[in-house]
Write a structure and sequence with these properties.
The structure holds 2 protein chains of 2 kinds. In chain A, 35% of the residues lie in helices and 29% in strands. By secondary structure, chain A is an alpha/beta fold. Chain A has 2 domains: 3-224, 3-Layer(aba) Sandwich (Rossmann fold); 228-299, Alpha-Beta Plaits (2-Layer Sandwich), CATH 3.30.70. In chain A, strands 6-7-8-3-9-10 form a 6-stranded mixed sheet, sandwiched between helices. A 4-stranded antiparallel sheet of chain A has the order 2-1-4-5, covered by helices on one side. In chain A, a hairpin with a 2-residue loop joins strand 9 (204-209) and strand 10 (212-217). In chain A, helix 4 runs antiparallel to helix 5. The longest helix of chain A has 16 residues, at 168-183. The two termini of chain A are 33 Å apart. Chain B has 2 domains: 2-40 and 165-357, no CATH class; 51-147, no CATH class. Chain B is 65% helix and 5% strand. Chain B has 13 helices and 4 strands. Chain B has a 4-stranded mixed sheet with strand order 2-1-3-4, sandwiched between helices. In chain B, strand 3 and strand 4 (106-110) form a beta hairpin. The radius of gyration of chain B is 30 Å and the shape is elongated. The chains are: A alpha/beta, B mainly alpha.
């Protein structure tokens, strides 16, 4: 996969405070790249630097080969930003807002008209083109905010919590739109406080803390860096004269089982994350005369990984 | 740049608040202040027409001089003079406003029924008397000096007729245009960048390929139509709807308009600069009180309010004085000075603003 964004040894200080410390990562073309970190971890600073909003002390950043310092204008043309705050002019209609921001990127005439139309269609606001932002719902404003950031067809889209404070329907629409952008070939850097969103749409994830890279990879790769286990819970009915000790000793000897225990009538098996076939365990339980009343499998999720790596919750 | 300009124009003209406070409000103020305060210029007492009877029966030098003085007043329509005989003096008060008699070196004033007219006649005669006394004193001590006086036709007091009476409406038409220069132009300048911060669009502008210089000058140019419209509307509405008068000639009116526009550019630049230097601050909230105080002590709202030694240095007062010099006396010098200084201030502040927008924090 082609490397579209390259960040090498990025360092950014605010006086004596080091906001980003020798950070390096790369984003592949056509992927949704999640950027996670606790508050003050350096996410916003990193994004500000990539969008050329802030200067930085050391390091090099290239967007599709264009150095953001030496070839700033070219780099800027490749980047689209969807800020966390609703950044719209209240005195302009939806269409005029999109038109203005797209025109800053040199689009004119029919090209501009079709870009505006396409962007509004993309976020599902074609029928609200003449409406002013203040008359729109929060979700619609968010979608318009996205339209303004993508109308000029950027190759790298940076989205900073684009779903904050929106209803479930708008969130689904926005997340679906981001996947569509990826499918059309755009590269997306995505930050969110909602872990399930990151799990849902990001191809790879970078976790940063104290301005440094903590871990990077796919969701599965990140989980495996923290734990290679998952938990299988089998609900059954255990009689009073049942020999739990022998049963658990037998269960522990089965393939991929690391530990076995019984908690309140539930058999808890800690097994290898790679284990996929549970029939052997179920047959063994049945052979001991225990009925299978229910089965649940719990893997570690991104939130567990995040807490494990940073020692903090995302919020 | 065109898109930035158009956007700035839209931001100005699509704001109901801007339209109201920068155009409608000053026009209404001209009307209300001009109408309601019209009574202020009505004097407490009216002198009215003075019919003065005079009696100077001797034919010496002083009697001739006195008669000449009375007739000159008559010629200039200050009074209506009529010569009467000494026997008519006692009954003159019935027929005339007052009567005066020159008897040797003494002047006797016979008061009429109207106290105001009596005071006026007394003031005229006192003036003549003091002049005559001074002449007599010089004649006694240094007659040669009088002989050396060159008598010319030059009239040191020349009344000028502008063909109309100046009214409070005329005063407030100028004063409210000055108000709009400080409120409308300066505040809209202060909003130029502030709106980007409140709408959170500043970062979108800053990461676009359009340079900060282009955005900066685009915004300034985009605010110019508002400046022209503000001044134009207040002047035109005052003249067309409320009957206010500005200058006597088209050329002078053009110069007056140019002066107001240049002054507006300077105040616009002040607003922009203050906003750029303190971007997070509510600029208008800081500038408004300062403007109110300056305008108040410049006599903008009431001509008599002033602080000696301070008011004459306040920018609104300087602009108003230049405007009145042009509208009342047709003198252009002060207006031209205001134009030059306004353009110098505008250019200097534009430069400071340009340096500011292109200076980014370097945190290595």
């Amino acid at each position: 996969m082609k490397e579209f964004l390259s960040v090498k040894n990025l360092t950014k200080n605010y006086g004596d405070f080091c906001a980003v410390d020798d950070l390096s990562f790369s984003v592949h073309e056509g992927e949704i790249f999640g950027l996670l970190g606790p508050n003050g971890a350096g996410k916003s600073t990193t994004m500000n630097v990539i969008t050329t909003l802030s200067d930085f002390g050391k390091g090099t950043i290239t967007v599709d080969g264009a150095d953001i310092i030496k070839d700033k204008e070219k780099a800027r043309r490749l980047i689209g930003m969807v800020p966390q705050d609703i950044a719209l002019y209240p005195f302009l209609s939806a269409e005029e807002n999109v038109r203005f921001f797209a025109s800053l990127y040199g689009l004119r005439g029919t090209k501009l008209n079709s870009a505006v139309k396409e962007a509004l269609e993309f976020v599902g606001l074609s029928d609200k083109a003449k409406m002013k932002p203040k008359k729109m719902s929060g979700g619609m404003q968010r979608r318009l905010n996205i339209a303004c950031g993508i109308a000029h067809d950027p190759k790298l889209i940076i989205m900073d919590e684009p779903t904050v404070g929106v209803d479930a329907q708008s969130r689904e629409h926005i997340l679906g739109s981001i996947k569509t952008l990826r499918d059309r070939g755009a590269t997306v850097i995505y930050t969110s406080h909602y872990m399930n969103e990151v799990e849902d749409i990001c191809d790879r994830i970078l976790i940063i803390d104290h301005g440094k890279s903590v871990a990077v990879g796919t969701e599965r790769e990140l989980i495996s860096t923290v734990s290679d286990s998952k938990v299988l819970k089998i609900t059954t009915e255990i009689k009073s004269n049942f020999n739990e000790k022998d049963f658990l000793a037998e269960m522990s000897k089965l393939p991929d089982v690391k530990k076995a225990r019984i908690e309140d009538g539930v058999i808890v098996l800690e097994i290898n994350a790679s284990a996929k076939d549970f029939t052997l365990y179920l047959e063994h339980i049945k052979s001991r005369g225990l009925p299978i009343l229910g089965i649940t499998s719990e893997s570690m999720n991104l939130e567990d990984v995040f807490i494990a790596l940073t020692g903090r919750e995302l919020r | 740049m065109l898109q930035v300009i158009l956007n700035a124009v839209r931001s100005c003209f699509r704001s109901g608040t801007t339209i109201f406070f920068s155009m409608l409000f000053p026009s209404l103020c001209t009307f209300f202040l001009g109408t309601l305060l019209e009574n202020i210029e009505v004097s407490d007492d009216v002198v009215g027409e003075i019919n003065l009877a005079y009696c100077a029966e001797s034919s010496d030098y002083s009697a001739n001089a006195f008669e000449e003085f009375i007739l000159s007043l008559d010629e200039e329509n200050v009074i209506n003079a009529e010569k009467i005989g000494a026997d008519e003096l006692e009954s003159a008060a019935e027929k005339y406003s007052a009567a005066v008699e020159l008897n040797g070196s003494e002047i006797t004033v016979y008061n009429g029924k109207n106290a105001v007219q009596n005071r006026t006649v007394k003031a005229l005669i006192d003036g003549y008397n003091q002049n005559a006394a001074a002449y007599a004193a010089v004649a006694e001590k240094n007659p040669q000096a009088l002989a050396n006086i060159e008598v010319t036709d030059e009239n040191l007091v020349e009344p000028k007729d502008f063909g109309r009476t100046r009214t409070m409406m005329d005063y407030y038409a100028v004063a409210m245009t000055v108000v709009i220069i400080f409120f409308g132009a300066m505040i809209s300048g202060a909003e130029a960048y502030h709106i980007e911060y409140t709408c959170k669009t500043i970062n979108r502008l800053n990461i676009s390929p359009v340079s900060r210089t282009t955005v900066y000058f685009g915004k300034i140019v985009g605010h110019l139509p508002l400046v022209f419209v503000q001044v134009g509307v207040v002047m035109c509405v005052s003249a067309a709807f409320f009957g206010a008068h500005f200058c006597a000639t088209f050329g002078e009116n053009l110069l007056l308009f140019a002066m107001f526009i240049c002054a507006s550019l300077a105040t616009l630049a002040v607003g922009v600069c203050v906003n750029l230097l303190f971007p997070k601050m509510q600029t208008w909230a800081v500038l408004m009180p300062i403007n109110w105080i300056m305008l108040f002590f410049s006599g903008t709202f009431q001509a008599d309010i002033a602080i000696k030694g301070v008011s004459e240095y306040l920018p609104p007062n300087i602009i108003m004085e230049a405007a009145f010099d042009l509208t009342v006396f047709g003198r252009t010098e002060r207006a031209i000075n205001v134009i030059i200084w306004s353009l110098v201030i505008f250019a200097a502040l534009m430069l400071i603003g340009w340096i500011k927008v292109n200076t980014r924090r370097k945190n290595a």
